[in-house]
Write a structure and sequence with these properties.
With 298 residues, the protein is of the alpha/beta class. The protein has 7 helices and 17 strands. The strands form 2 sheets. Strands 1, 2, 3, 4, 5, 6, 7, 9, 10, 14 and 17 form an 11-stranded mixed β-sheet that branches. It has a 6-stranded antiparallel β-sheet with strand order 13-12-11-8-15-16.
Amino acid sequence: MLGRTMNILAVYKKNFESVHDSSLQQMKDILSTIQHRFDFDVQYKARELVRRSDFIGRDLVIVLGGDGTLTSISHNVDSKTPVMGVNSHPRSSDPEGSFGFYMGSSIDLFEQDIISVFEGKAIENILPRLQAVIEGTSGNKFTTDPAMNDLLIANTHQYAPSKYHVRRGSKNKEQHSSGLLFSTWFGQGAWFRHVLNKDEFDVIRSRYGDGQEQSHYFVVARDIPHHEREEHSWAWLDWTNQATNITSDMHRGYVVPDGWDEVHFNRGATITVNLDAPPLHLYTFRETMTQVLEQSMK
């Protein structure tokens, strides 16, 4: 496929459950069996032991586990390295298993799917990712890890309201809520869908147009009073391609990409949220991610 030895990193879920150990052994056996047909080297690493440096120079990252395993390590993957998700415990074979929204393969289909990758026949999905750029009052800047699904900005004390000023273009609005939630188009399959009621969700989905899933993102201010929602719809719920600028009026807040690492900030900090993070290249094999999302929404 590359004209040289393919450098593969396989990251697996390790929680001492036999089903995941069995899937890992199956994967190793399959890759060992087909190695005489394709030119590749593979290194295996448990999710808990993987480091950002492990992803440098890889031609493919295989993630064995579920969506949580994939989102937890995807922050380390740049826009040039394709990712293949393999569900190690699919719900189709066990009600206690994982749905695996982003897992385009399963251990039962792994052999045929990895061969599709080697032969250049896999479906490549380009998934936009969110980022937040935080500038403190001292002028120091920090960019969060990219978020595949969603990004939360809230008070670190969840019992206290999140206070902030929101700016987008010429609009400026002071708000109190339980936090701002941002979501990519594909992140609908995660937390975002459960924050809104069906009518609210249908309204914002109706604004979606062809091609906008790459350039737009959702914003919702959680638990804003309904009368404020009606008066300032742009500020509590939106599907936008503009950057959202926030000035914190909280003693201490945090940004949380994809429910993982927290990045803290203090009062007066400014946070800019946009879709300028490097996209993720994700392989699927029977459906595009758009088709997977449509099926999950039914």
